[in-house]
Amino acid sequence: MVAMRRTVLGILAAFFLLAGTACSITTEDPGYVAPPPLPAMEHLEQAALADPAAFKAAGDVLSFITEDRNIVCSLTSARGEHLNLPYESNSFSDAANNKLATVPVAHCELAGYPKPAAGDIQDDCAGTGLGYLGGTALLSPDKATYGECRSGVTQMEAAYGPKGNKSGLLTELLVLAEGQNLERNGLRCSAHNGGVACGNVSAGVGFFVARDRYELISKDAATASQAPAEASKTP
């Protein structure tokens, strides 16, 4: 009889516990305001590093694409102006360039992008002053730049722009999820705040790029320029 009473009490206790849990109500706090995203360099310093093995594209180069298929980036190397990019032809491995120092870099290309601010134009494009276009960003250990001299679209624009073919090696790259952080030779890149941040945290140098804005970051000063992506379309 005692054993039966204990069993009944146990069943009742479990029933009331289940009922109490099932009736719990979660209410939304109308006064809650989500904290703003961290500045790019702070995010790069604090975000946990992802396993780089899955992002190896060729040799020790780490490459990724963003979830919205707007940005592709590589943590790679440069010899002079020659970049080792697995998804586009380049002269990095040419014997004539072996005499040049090999430098770690981070390079990003965008399908939709703002045009460069006048103060960020770094080249006169063979003396013409024409053809310096947005859509690319480059980080070396001590400097970040946005834009380049070219006569056509970026690889990303060719693949994922309004008239993109959505084919080729770019489509095979792994997505770097929002907040994930990769590092190679002291440089880091992370999918952050709707774009990509890359930086040399120890030197305080980096960039942030997104569809509608970009920022070049240095220890002494930071510049941010914004323009609608439509204003930057290449020929």
Structure characterization notes:
The chain has helices at 2-22, 40-46, 155-160, and strands at residues 56-58, 61-65, 71-79, 82-83, 102-110, 132-140, 143-149, 181-184, 187-192, 195-200, 205-209, 213-217, 222-226. The protein is an alpha+beta fold and 235 residues long. The strands form two sheets. Strands 1, 2, 3, 4, 5, 6 and 7 form a seven-stranded antiparallel sheet that branches. A six-stranded antiparallel sheet has the order 8-9-10-11-12-13, covered by helices on one side. It is globular and about 70 Å long.
How would the blueprint of this fold be written?
Blueprint: H1 2-22, H2 40-46, E1 56-58, E2 61-65, E3 71-79, E4 82-83, E5 102-110, E6 132-140, E7 143-149, H3 155-160, E8 181-184, E9 187-192, E10 195-200, E11 205-209, E12 213-217, E13 222-226
* Overall pLDDT metric: 87
Order of helices and strands: HHEEEEEEEHEEEEEE
Determine the strand fraction and express it as a percent band.
25-35%
Distance between the termini: 90 Å
Low-confidence parts? none
- Rg over CA atoms: 25 Å
Number of helices: 3
Care to count the β-strands? 13
Structural class: alpha+beta
> What form results from the Cα inertia axes?
globular
Largest sheet: 7 strands, antiparallel
Q: Determine the fraction of residues in helical runs and give it as a percent range.
A: 10-25%
Which terms would index this structure?
235 residues; alpha+beta; 7-stranded antiparallel sheet; 6-stranded antiparallel sheet; 13 strands; 14% helix; 32% strand; globular
Short description:
By secondary structure, this protein is an alpha+beta fold. Helix content is 14%, strand content 32%.
